[in-house]
Amino acid sequence: MAITQDNILKALAQVMDPDLKKDLVSLNMIKDISIDGNAIYFTVVLTTPACPLKELIKNDCIDAIHKNVGADFQVFPNMTSDVTSTRSTAPLLPNVKNIIAIASGKGGVGKSTVSANLAVSLAQSGAKVGLIDADIFGPSIPTMFNCEHEQPEVKEINGKNVIIPIEQYGIKLISIGFLTPPDNAVVWRGPMASSALKQFLGDTDWGELDYLLIDLPPGTSDIHLTMVQTIPVTGALIVTTPQKVALADAQKAIAMFKQPQINVPILGLVENMAYFTPEELPENKYFIFGEGGGYKLSERYEIPFLGQIPLVQSIRESGDSGYPSAMKNDVSSEAFEEIAKKAARQIAIRNANMAGTTKVEMTN
Ligand SMILES: Nc1ncnc2c1ncn2[C@@H]1O[C@H](COP(=O)(O)OP(=O)(O)OP(=O)(O)O)[C@@H](O)[C@H]1O
Ligand SMILES: [Mg+2]
């Protein structure tokens, strides 16, 4: 009996997406089936190019065909992706599929480092990525991307002046650091900082993006409020070190996003500076800020734990020299890549299971 596209669909309906807990056919992930003699071709459309389950799903598809259609067929799944979104009807930036805030509570724990490396890892996986440096008082993204002296163009589009983001390493960037010279001591008042962030969201030409990351300043400030009042945020990532004071501040950031009026889903927690490792003795781990605090916090609040990043000199050097670690090929780039995959996975799960976030209405 000749095989048909229907036979193939029935076989692939046996393959589950382990995260979304439905089969690939119901999820509409199978496209372009074709049969050529003994060869079977089809496309699998995943929810993110950074899908950590790509190989597993591919092998499950091949097994399902062999088991249900015939063991002699050669199976060629073409693994692609179309990043999911809950923002397509949002009034502002509907073409930005996911807006992800990176927050910490305590200062200096590595929000900007994680944001920069996450942006690079996601872009390397093939996603379209933008990054807003929302730290108006202490911007660090221009340095971390080696483009401190760039100046964004302003263009008139449909009668409105819009900022064109700087593009570096394939990532669209905006920062107050591009708009004010580094040696110019601008004294920013709170409302001015808030209006700068509003411009970065409302008056910047982001185009189509899969992920727009927002590197927040420390604390739970006006900037955080401006962000949630200006756009519906898909979700937040929390960065902390294992140190007691950092964990206490991280809890405040978690509590802020969880407030019923704000209600931004927390998609994961990253433990940065989890332990120190000397480059020449990579087996040795020194838990100088304490051990396992980030993991315990994520358990207590039932937040997915995205992983640990060690304290290593090269991460600091990469930040200062403007070439994020994730662009290299070493232990720290692997750690960032793992975290990026896990974050992308949590974003996809969130989009499958929850409605879009709603913007916080202004109240005085
Ligand atoms: N895992 C790490 N290993 C080594 N150095 C790190 C690591 N993470 C961050 N750093 C360094 O620590 C410093 C603070 O990091 P970063 O600027 O990312 O923190 P932040 O939370 O964004 O700070 P702020 O609250 O001021 O915005 C930087 O010099 C950075 O290079
Ligand atoms: Mg920072």
Automatic annotation (TrEMBL):
Pfam family, one: FeS_assembly_P
Keyword Magnesium: no
Domain of life of the organism encoding this protein: Bacteria
Keywords recorded for this protein, A-Z: ATP-binding, Hydrolase, Iron, Iron-sulfur, Metal-binding, Nucleotide-binding
Binding site for ATP: G105, K106, G107, G108, V109, G110, K111, S112
Metal-binding recorded as keyword: yes
Domain MIP18 family-like: 6-66
SUPFAM superfamilies: Fe-S cluster assembly (FSCA) domain-like (SSF117916), P-loop containing nucleoside triphosphate hydrolases (SSF52540)
PROSITE patterns in the cross-refs: MRP
Family (UniProt): Belongs to the Mrp/NBP35 ATP-binding proteins family. In the C-terminal section; belongs to the Mrp/NBP35 ATP-binding proteins family.
Function field: Binds and transfers iron-sulfur (Fe-S) clusters to target apoproteins. Can hydrolyze ATP.
Subunit structure: Homodimer.
Record-given protein name: Iron-sulfur cluster carrier protein
Biological source species: Marivirga lumbricoides
